[in-house]
Design goal:
It contains no helices and ten strands. With about 110 residues, it is an all-beta fold. The strands form two sheets. The chain has a six-stranded mixed β-sheet with strand order 2-10-9-4-5-6, with no helix packed on it. Strands 1-3-8-7 form a four-stranded antiparallel β-sheet, with no helix packed on it.
Length: about 110
């Protein structure tokens, strides 16, 4: 049974930091590319960072230089370190594979105040 459980969100002031975690089960985790996605109110879900099975990382231009994705295959967990947060980063954050699995997790809310 596929399951993604995200945690670590919260309310933070602009310029602050948060670290998100995502525990995955029911998928061959170590061989999958895993990504962090986000969905802001009224907007489509977008991919913001992803990490390949070999550890290579990629980022959307909007978060490059501020966010860092990493993975721990032994713990079947992916992390997203978010620094220098901006109000535009406010969204529900999800993790999933690339391509994504069903169902999605519940996500974790990140709110950045100005």
């Amino acid at each position: 049974q596929v399951q993604f459980v995200e945690s670590g969100g919260g309310l933070v002031q602009a310029g602050g930091s948060l670290r998100l975690s995502c525990a995955a089960s029911g998928i061959p985790f170590s061989i999958n590319t895993i990504g962090w996605y986000r969905q802001a109110p009224g907007k489509q879900r977008e991919l913001v960072a992803w990490v390949g099975s070999g550890g290579g990382t990629n980022y959307a231009d909007s978060v490059k230089g501020r966010f860092t994705i990493s993975r721990d295959n032994a713990k079947r967990t992916v992390y997203l370190q978010m620094n220098t947060l901006k109000p535009g980063d406010t969204a529900v954050y999800y993790c999933n594979g690339l391509p994504h699995y069903s169902p999605w997790g519940q996500g974790t809310q990140v709110t950045v105040s100005s």
